[in-house]
Amino acid sequence: MIVYNTTFNIENDILAECIEYLKKSYIPRAAASGFLRTPYLRRILQDETEDATSYSVQFHVKNPETLEYWMQSEGRDLQQELVNRFGTKLVGFSTLLEEIDLES
């Protein structure tokens, strides 16, 4: 299982609006296709500054190929909507994480 993680650094003056948008629009729309599952929204504690707060949005995805298909079909459009809505007050980067089974 792969975890698709996007870390967002959000300027505090748009923080409430941005979190609301992530919770009510971005995350539900990203999960609607069924390719991205088990969404999480987490605040990153050690990266807080006076001006911005960092959050992690995570989804489980079957494999990198499934993620690439989702990115091509709808993911890039969703990301562009974030840029259009919040501009440079929100910046992010994505990473793929592999879950390691602790039992084997």
Question: Can you tell me about this structure?
Answer:
This protein is of the alpha+beta class. The chain has a single domain, classed as Alpha-Beta Plaits (2-Layer Sandwich). Helices cover 39% and strands 37% of the residues. The protein has 2 helices and 4 strands. The chain has helices spanning 15-32, 64-86, and strands spanning 2-11, 36-44, 52-61, 90-98. A 4-stranded antiparallel sheet has the order 2-3-1-4, covered by helices on one side. A hairpin with a 7-residue loop joins strand 2 and strand 3. Helix 1 (15-32) packs antiparallel against helix 2. The protein is globular and about 45 Å long. The mean pLDDT is 95.
Bin the strand percentage. 35-45%
General form: globular
Residues in helices, as a percent range: 25-40%
Contiguous uncertain segments of 5+ residues? none
For the largest beta-sheet, the strand count, sense and barrel status come to: 4 strands, antiparallel
Q: Give the beta-strand count.
A: 4
Rg: 14 Å
Question: What is the overall pLDDT average?
Answer: 95
Report the CATH architecture.
2-Layer Sandwich
CATH topology: Alpha-Beta Plaits
Protein name: DUF4286 domain-containing protein
Organism: Parabacteroides goldsteinii dnLKV18
InterPro entries: DUF4286
Pfam family, one: DUF4286
What's the gist of this structure?
The chain has 104 residues and is an alpha+beta fold. The chain has helices at residues 15-32, 64-86; strands spanning 2-11, 36-44, 52-61, 90-98. The protein contains 2 helices and 4 strands, in the order βαββαβ.
